[in-house]
Design goal:
The protein is of the alpha/beta class. The chain is 36% helix and 12% strand. It has ten helices and seven strands. The structure holds uracil. Uracil binds next to loops.
Length: 253
Amino acid sequence: MPETIYRLSARRRRYLEAMGITVAPAAAGVHAESAAISEPAQEVVGDFLTTSYPLPVEPTTALDLKSVSTLDWPQLEAQVAACTACGLHKGRTQTVFGVGNREAQLLVIGEAPGATEDRQGEPFVGRAGKLLDAMLLAINLQRKEVFIANIIKCRPPKNRDPSQEEAAACRPYLQRQIELIEPKVILAVGRIAAHNLLETEQAIGKLRGRVHTLGQHNLSVVVTYHPAYLLRNPKDKAKAWQDLKQVTQLMRQ
Ligand code: URA
């Protein structure tokens, strides 16, 4: 793993504390000093271990991947809102398309809407969403500066894991969102996001800590823990912070 030297401003320290991370001065790999937040520190960035994943080329669903791949934002949004490609549409209050900056450098991808998201039509607005906001602020990004979407646009009943068929049915939408946004970095939060995006079943502990590349444009993908998991396992927030620093480094490249 590359060594990273970071100066932490008081503000960033507050954000980290909001994530539940206490940063000791000169803690492992982190050198705390006061510095302007917009003027990041010196970094020593070694070569990341990189793995490449092709995007699926064949339509995997009842939806025609080719036709979705020509849609513009309003058309895509309308098609998602009217989607009945899998059974999840029957239980939804509304679809959760995704929010934020459509020209964002960072695209955050979660799993699926929960109850609050289904009611409000916006991803990550519940407790996990508050932690996600704090995680983003820790790397000096406001929610509105990034784009946030999910693998699945409709809430699975009782928040169960989405099935492979449901994920495949939704895939063309996310794929089109990725093409339209052209982000520099994708942050996949949680097992479901990472597995579906990278088409792997590797444990999240193995997927995080390195940079994956996706599709022909070699989009950088960083995997981290889902904020809902971090709420239950706060000891892993320090690892999530390492992942977030990797995102920052990639965005600067
Ligand atoms: N969890 C997710 O993965 N996505 C949401 O939108 C909300 C919670």
